[in-house]
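Task 17 of the worksheet. Students: predict the tertiary structure of the chain below and write it out as structure tokens. Keep your answer in the requested format; marks are given for formatting as well as content.
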Amino acid sequence: MALFVLGSAFRKQALLIPFMNAVRGMSSSGGPTPPFTTLSVTRPAETITHVEFCRPEKRNAMNKAFWLEMVDCFNQIAEDSECRVVVFSGSGKVFTSGIDLMSMASDILQPEGDDTARISWNVRRIITKYQETFSVIEKCPKPVIVAIHGACIGGGVDLITACDVRLCTQDAWFQVKEVDIGLAADVGTLQRLPRVIGSRSLVNELAFTARKMYADEAKSCGLVSRVFPDKETMMAGALEMAGDIATKSPVAVQGTKVNLIYSRDHSVPDALNYMNTWNMSMLQTQDLMKSAQAAMEKKNLKEVTFSKL
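Model answer:
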């Protein structure tokens, strides 16, 4: 039995070698890629886009530029027919320390307006704009895998709960920090975290106390689906998962994401009706026949060519 377990471990490590090599090519030292000043966008594989938050000297704090660039970035990815899967990560020692208070102070503390009504309208407009920074991840039809290491604080929780698959390292920790700075989280955590975790009591506890949640608890409650020993191994695992998803029909994968999100926010009868309407057209794809033929011939889907979407 010991030899079998050891052999399985060696086989698993061997399978990860090409992904580890690809990870080493996903350099976090090159800095942001133009036109972005906070994001690096690279292509570790033809159908995979890697978006990296690049403000390591500021612990990846979310400044004004970041909130705007995320929207531009994911809108571009949504329209990119080459891309089938996205991996999102953070550079440096931590995933993100949350909002950059120095950068955002003027919007938050000094909104424009001549009276309470006008100030309030401007604050509402600002919050709506910031909410779109993470809602755009959900609106992007490509699956988004987020890889979290170290601290994930405040706005980081808003970000990761908008992603489709969450992975983390053993040293990762999460904190709904907003109450400690005198506000209620307003760009997604309070709306998405209850749907991700499923325990209202735990969500309330995290939001009211601002205590830290560590990797093992995050895994046990369903915030993340996998925990890795270190960042390099996690990035290899994320890339392997992305590569597997990218071999599937993009019609099937993107349709699955759209319907999963719709089902989360609607009743079962409404979601079934939406699925019915969706598939009355999407079933008329060549991808269905290609996938079925590959299954009958016992072929790997990597050998099947699906058209761009």
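Marker's comment: Confidence is low (pLDDT under 50) at residues 1-20. The longest helix spans residues 2-25.
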